Amino acid sequence: PDWVKDLEPRLPPALATPPPTQDGPMVSRDSLRRKTMRLKSVQIRVLLGRGGENIKQICERTNAEIKVDHDRISDEGDINITGDVVRAEALIREILAQKGCPMDDEQQPVEDELLQVPGDMVGLFIGRGGEHIKAIRDACGGSLYIGVNPPPTGEGLHKIQIVGDQREKAREMVLLRLKEMWEAEAKKEAEARPPPPAPLVRPAVPMAPMAPM
Fold first, then answer.
1. Distance between CA atoms of 81 and 78, rounded to whole angstroms?
2. How far apart are CA 181 and CA 158, in angstroms?
3. Among 100, 122, 107, 108, which Cα is nearest to 171's?
4. Coil, strand, or helix at residue 25?
5. pTM, entire model
6. Rounded Cα gap, residues 147 and 153, in angstroms
7. Are 79 and 73 spatial neighbours (Cβ–Cβ below 8 Å)?
């Protein structure tokens, strides 16, 4: 009878069976507790942080399990989340946005036109074995990534990307490095330029004495 059905315990909406999607099939609870996020290599570096500290903090705050599948060579990798997917993904997106490398579906930072370098000067900017980049990273501390991205068409200026901690300090040091490069290049061009010809000096012509009045 109907009055017996009214006595049956009812589950709260959050624990009830998920409704079917627009396409029709039911969504399992397991699928709501698992998600894979595809990130770029630089985003994975920033997300990990020094010693994986960022990932550890997210796991502690959300009780989620996060595994990184990236071979450090590929341009992209996977972040596998198990547990509280919603909170973990929100924190991941927050960290990436704070570090200057948000997800593709979010608002991107305004490009800095000053952080550009010609292709023939990229090696000079990076230094032998990346020594100049390493010096900036060591001076700034924290988890910091500085990369040089070639133009999409293969021609034009290369853009310098700075993401991670201490971005403003790193930007100032990068601009200083670029200034030193331009000044050194200008000095080299000036030294290679032939000296201007000496001015032509005409000999003085003695004036004839004036006749007495």
1. 10
2. 15
3. 100
4. coil
5. 0.59
6. 18
7. no
**Full 3-state SS string of 45-83:** HHHHCHHHHHHHHHHHHHCCEEEEECCCCCCEEEEEEEC
Give the separation between CA 83 and CA 38, rounded to whole angstroms.
Answer: 17
Residues 6+ apart with CB under 8 A from 34: 80, 81, 82, 85
Helices (H), 63-206: 85-98, 122-126, 131-140, 167-192
CA distances from 206 to 29, 76, 129, 199, 210 (A): 110, 85, 69, 21, 12
User: What confidence tens digit (pLDDT) does each residue in 169-211 have?
Assistant: 999 999 999 999 999 888 888 888 777 777 777 766 666 666 6
Q: How far is CA 61 from CA 20, 84, 89, 92, 107, in A?
A: 30, 10, 12, 12, 25
Amino acid 186 reads: A
Residue 173's φ and ψ, nearest 5 degrees, are -70, -35
